[in-house]
Amino acid sequence: MKYTKIAAAVLSCSLLMSGCGKVNYTETIMTVGDEKITAGMYGFYYDSYKQMLSEEEAKEKALTQCEDNQKVVAAAKAVGIEFDEETVKEVADYKQQVIDSYNGGYEDFLKESNMSDSDVDTIVSVSFYAEKLQERLGDKEYTDEDKKEYYKEHYRRAKHILISTKDMTTDEELPADKQEEAKKKADELLAKAQNGENFDTLIQENSEDPGSQSNPDGYIFTDNEMVKEFQDGVDSLQTGEFTLVKSDFGYHVIQRLALDETPEFFDKGFEEKKTNVEAALANDGFKNQVYELVDQYDIKTEIVNQDAIDKVVKNSK
Questions:
Q1: Contact at 8 Å (CB) between 76 and 125?
Q2: What CA–CA distances, in Å, run from 192 to 178, 186, 187, 200, 303?
Q3: Are 151 and 265 a contacting pair, CB within 8 Å?
Q4: Terminal CA-CA length for the chain
Q5: Per DSSP, what are the bridge partners of residue 37?
Q6: How far apart are CA 117 and CA 129, in angstroms?
Q7: Phi and psi (nearest 5°) for 249?
Q8: How many CB atoms lie within 10 A of CB 111?
Q9: Under the phi-then-psi rule, with left for phi > 0, alpha for psi from -120 to 50, and beta for the rest, what region is 315?
Q10: CA angle at residue 106 from 103 to 112, to 5 degrees?
Q11: Contact, 25 vs 45, CB < 8 A?
């Protein structure tokens, strides 16, 4: 089981950070043991997360991503892992793929994203250190009961009615009066659901989410698979309860449902998600092994330039 190449996946996207303001993007903002994280590396991850999360959440996620990446590297080096010639070539080949993906615009990418070529080297190398470390540590074995427990703890099930606040053809925001009508309709549907009207019927008659038809049992999802407002709304509910939230898509009238409606229903949902559960358990298990090594070798994390972090965040707006 190979460690997921998160850093590599992020590099493949074309999210670019604004270059305005006075920040030395080559300076170190954080250290993890002897490993250094530059303002440019942090800014790259921050800008990526900012597309999906609030400013505060993106700041935290970017710092965590940078720290976790370098914990892997520091832990690997602590147990004596070094790259042999074959691995050095693999790293170089992979970096070349990254460079080629910009179709001659790699230097422009570095300039616009405030990253150095050395930053890219650091990010690319993480997944290779992770792979070597995981080979050294070995995979932890999980029983079906372990996997079912993870499924119960980390997955949710919900149905919803979407009242869109966007033009379904152009994807443009509806005018203010139409937005107010959408809110009024969503409030009315929430009241009907809470007063006992059949929610499936309300969905069929009112929802503008085409996915509702192909998911008659509701959506079964884990962290970060749905928009944040939807996930937070579901997390605020007990089984059977309703709520109303607004996302960029519109208003969602949501009902949280049980994963284990029947033993057969639970097993069906679990089997559909089993591959994802196994991958998540493997990644979590590897993370825990890394954290144990970090403790064992007393690898410390230190924020060494908070001012630079704040400037990166400010300049990316």
A1: no
A2: 21, 10, 9, 12, 52
A3: no
A4: 39
A5: 30
A6: 19
A7: -80, -30
A8: 12
A9: alpha
A10: 125
A11: no
Tokens of 53: 């999360």
Q: Tokens standing for 99?
A: 């460079």
What is the Cα–Cα distance from 131 to 281, expressed in whole angstroms?
Answer: 16
Contacts of 248 (CB under 8 A, 6+ apart): 166, 227
Alpha-carbon torsion (303, 308, 314, 317), positive or negative: negative
Q: Which two tokens stand for residue 252?
A: 């969602």
Give φ, ψ of 24 to 5 degrees. Answer: -85, 100
Encoding tokens for residue 65? 């991503």
Instruction: Spell out the alpha helix ranges (H) of 155-175.
Output: none
pTM of the model: 0.79
What is the three-class DSSP state of 10? helix
Quote the DSSP letter at residue 175. Answer: P
Closest listed residue to residue 137, CA positions, set 6, 34, 2: 2
Cα–Cα dist 109/103, whole Å: 11
Nearest-angstrom CA–CA distance, 17 and 40 = 10
Among 187, 279, 268, which Cα is nearest to 1's?
Answer: 279
Position of tokens 């089981």?
A: 1
In eight-state DSSP terms, residue 99 is H
Collapsing DSSP to helix, strand or coil, 238 comes out as coil
Q: What is the pLDDT along the chain (317 residues), one digit of tens a residue?
A: 444 444 444 444 433 333 445 789 999 999 999 999 999 999 999 999 998 888 898 999 999 999 999 999 999 999 999 999 999 999 999 999 999 999 999 999 999 999 999 999 999 999 999 999 999 999 889 999 999 999 999 999 999 999 999 998 898 999 999 999 999 999 999 999 999 999 999 999 999 999 988 899 999 999 989 998 999 999 999 999 999 999 999 999 999 999 999 999 999 999 999 999 999 999 999 999 999 999 999 999 999 999 999 999 998 86
Task: Give, for 28, the enclosing helix (H) or strand (E).
Answer: strand 28-32
